[in-house]
Amino acid sequence: MNFSELRQQYPEFEFHAFDVAAKPDALEITYRFEIKGLCKFEPKWSIPCTNAEDAFGSSTLLRMIFSLGMAELISYWKITCSPVVRIACGRLTEEQAEWWKRLYFGGLGEFFYRNGIETDADSFMQLEFIGSRIPVIPSKKFLSGKLIPVGGGKDSIVTLNLLKDQLDDACAFQINHRDSSEQAALLAGIPKARILEPKRTLDPNMLDCNKRGFLNGHTPFSAIVAFSSVLTAYLHGLKNVILSNESSASESTVSEAEVNHQYSKSYQFERDFAAYERDYLKSGVRYFSLLRPLTEFQIARYFASLPEQYHHIFRSCNAGAKQDKWCGRCAKCLFVAVILSPFLPYAKITELLDSDIMNLPEMRSVLQELCGALPNKPFECVGSRNEVNLALCLAIARAEKNGDSLPLLLADYKASPLYEKYKDLAPAFGQEWDDCHNLPAELAALVKRECVERFA
What is the pLDDT of residue 55? Predict the structure, then answer.
């Protein structure tokens, strides 16, 4: 089944409604979507909260719940890419509708690319609103403290450690439970009672459609993190949602097109989301990334300097996520090995990943993708081509200085033209600072001092 045929057969997708219930320990939400002529979907959320009734019925809460549904629906719309999306439980301005279309189109760049779909930002979707507008009234709720999304990888661990003296009013946040995320929060000093774990349940009909051969692929999950974390922060009276997305996330995955696997981690999305919250949600919650001025290289350098117990608990591999382990054979695992290799002995990296990944011949083409020898990066959350090349040069220099033999992939790289291009640039790398960020001045100074100036 292809894009055009599915759009003709299933021309309408509808966001019917959302149901909300305040339980003693959670706010429970059920969204009701339908692809006309195919099936209905009822994904659910359960957000831990002991005082949901206090906010119940407020226009602010309704706007936030509705907006999370708008972020959620794209995972179901992509099954058939119906040309008309009808919203029956809310109404947006033309400017808001364009905001959502920009998110959907940018966040589905990989999905369109990998499915061979040729479309454009105007025609891929028509949003129609038949519901009533939820009043836009600014919240007067007092907010203070922090909510820190913790994915279990090195980036959120770096954020937790940079804020280690400011965690008394902080909660950790993760969608569905993951051991590595909990361990990172606990190790940083956030007690279990302040680890908030909303439960997101996918509708099994979507999984069934995937098995039946309907369209499937990457969606902007970090947008769901954004809306659900801000909603959770609001319910708990927390002022700041502090992400761990870096400047490298803004680079396009496809070299000749604007197709970014990490679109909803990019600075463009962060900026757009902050504006949407300010102008339409009006919850008073502030959303920004602490690591936005930094590269993955600088984050890896700081992470490598942390106590070893953090090295043993972090996990970033999507292939091994369900088992909370590294698979040791994917692009993400190889990127982690590369970006840490200037700072940790290769033997240590193989121990952490449980894989001698740089001696696997089948990873040669993956390394070529990572460093730009091939046109497209892997569709994973990985760093820029520039910093991969510089990290490889520094890893080679480290090994040779210590008298260590080069693993296969480093030996291959040393024989490539890219090594000659980057080797003399590498020693001066690591003092970069991206001014495109939304950090408060005091936090920007903290990050610059600890992650840049400290290593000068």
Answer: 65
Q: What does the H/E/C string look like for the chain? A: CCHHHHHHHCCEEEEEEEEEEEECCEEEEEEEEEECCCEEECCEEEEECCCHHHHCCCHHHHHHHHHHHHHHHHHHHCCCCCCEEEECCCCCCHHHHHHHHHHHHHHCHHHHHHCCCCCCCCCCCEEEECCCCCCCCCCCCCCCCEEEECCCCHHHHHHHHHCHHHCCCEEEECCCCCHHHHHHHHHHCCCHHHEECCEEECCHHHHHHHHCCCCCCCCCHHHHHHHHHHHHHHHCCCCEEEECCCHHHHCCCECCCCCCCCHHHCHHHHHHHHHHHHHHHCCCCEEEECCCCCCHHHHHHHHHCCCHHHHHHCCCCCCCHHHCCCCCCCHHHHHHHHHHCCCCCHHHHHHHHCCCHHHCHHHHHHHHHHHCCCCECCCCCCCCHHHHHHHHHHHHHHHHHCCCCCCHHHHHHHCCHHHHHHCCCHHHCCCCCCCCCCCCHHHHHHHHHHHCHHHC
Output the pLDDT for position 53. Answer: 67
Find where tokens 């840490």 sit.
340
Token couple for 101 = 């279309």
- pLDDT for the residue numbered 321: 74
32 and 17 in contact (C-beta within 8 Å)?
yes
Instruction: Tell me the per-residue pLDDT of 181-220, one tens digit each, with 9 for 90 and over.
Output: 999 999 999 999 999 999 999 999 999 999 999 999 999 9
pLDDT value at residue 254 = 64
Residues 6+ apart with CB under 8 A from 238: 143, 144, 145, 146, 147, 171, 232, 285
Q: What is the model's pLDDT at position 152?
A: 84
Q: What global pTM score does this model have?
A: 0.94
95, exposed or middle or buried, with CB in 10 Å at 0-12, 13-18, 19+?
exposed
pLDDT value of residue 405: 92
Of 233, 188, 269, 314, which Cα lies nearest the Cα of 60?
A: 233
Neighbouring residues of 431: CB distance < 8 A, sequence distance ≥ 6: 452, 455, 456
Residues of the chain with pLDDT under 50: none
Q: What's the confidence (pLDDT) of residue 451?
A: 97
Structure tokens at 116: 């061979």
